[in-house]
Write a structure and sequence with these properties.
The chain is α/β, with parallel strands linked by helices and about 280 residues long. The protein is built from 13 helices and 8 strands. Helix 1 links the parallel strand 1 and strand 2.
Length: about 280
Amino acid sequence: MRADFHLHTWCSDGDSPPEALAAEVRRARLDWWAVTDHDTFAGWRQCAALGLPGLVPGVEVTASDGGREIHVVGLGTDPAHPGLGALLARIRELRRERMVALIARLPAAVGGGLDPERVRDRRAPDAGESLSRNHLARALVERGAVARLRDAFTAWLGDEHLADGSLPAFPGIEEVAAAIRAAGGVAILAHPGCYREAARALPLMERGLDGLEVEHPNLDPGLAQRLRAEAAARGWLQSLGSDYHHPGGARRPGCVGLGADRLAPLLERITPAAGGAAGR
């Protein structure tokens, strides 16, 4: 069985239109997959309209903890749930407010003349619906202020530059997890490898999360082993995802795997049809 529960389109910070992502999924022969754009179901809706099998409703919701962004993947949620929809709309507005503040922080020679509309992806009406630091970094590359995206993060946009508490705060992890569960889904800690050590990742699980990604391209093997052991011992759901953003890169849909026995509890929670499929 092949699955990937962390995929992005240009409706948030991915490069691919939804139909191109769906084509990638088809080529990867995934049995189960989820479009998890940041704080919007727009990409999921377009992929759902294409009718490919195995698509699970998903969204990557932005939370905060101690001034740091924490990303929580909601899987199996009802995309039409009013409470979750209101939370996502609020977070998208916070993203816009934060974008204004981030642009204002840049040196005039770097950010002069930029605003959220100039920064967002303008290739289609629904592209860039959820603004991110990646959008700003791309804009800085396009105007020649930096050579690479990573240079923009190193100089101005990395987490270490945003932890001073002066930006509008995203909702806490507990609020996000509760909204996901109220919409019928499960709350999964995304890309725990970014926390680099178990002592930083594991306490986040105590904030009401249901599981975590134990397979992800940036997850150190030693940390992955520890997280898998903790998940098994504590009954946490185990998920996986490529965190696909760009065609042609190393992070391809289905590039990480998870054994059917470890994946089965998650599948049983996020889709009624998954129980039988998990046992095949």
